[in-house]
């Protein structure tokens, strides 16, 4: 059975706050739905990522993390109103990163993203994740490079800007091998390029339930990795790199 640390999936629970984003509200997707979908794999843990439709709500995340237990962590949308003690308390329940949804029109400027990223890293060693079309990286690349630990979602989405993603990898960024149905290029080729630069930089994520994706996640996405990488590379992509990124020790 394939071992997996799922570095990006969403839990959508209408018992908690859900807001419309760009005219869209997602379908409900509960922890039990996720576990049922992924029941063919040995789940070592994962990262529950807050979507734009969850805004600054963390109550749903507290509930989900309590359900899943240890080795599952949370990624939240950055709230500038959080005090240092708020961040420390969130860290205690398992939050390990902030996320900026540039693709969906985040309100933050790049200067705010840079400041916030440095702040949470200093307080709690959280890293920063960005959902961005790679074509838009070029104009803000220098600011992104100043972020202590940066993660790019969904392989950067676009073929035309993929070299920008590789430039970030060369400087230490991580990239999530996720959202294959969102891409306009071959994910295997992209992952091979990343691995050739840094074998520790690529982390797998299912992106379930694939909100707004042209094609949702399928088991064939996992097969693509299994069929195109050697055992050492697969271990790193599927779970070792993710566990390292989120600072989890299974021992």
Automatic annotation (TrEMBL):
Source domain of life: Bacteria
Presence of keyword Lyase: no
Pfam families recorded: Amidohydro_2
Amidohydrolase-related domain mapped to chain residues: 10-248
Keyword terms, alphabetized: Hydrolase
GO MF, one annotated term: hydrolase activity
Keyword Iron applies: no
Protein name, as recorded: Predicted metal-dependent hydrolase, TIM-barrel fold
Native organism: Desulfurella multipotens
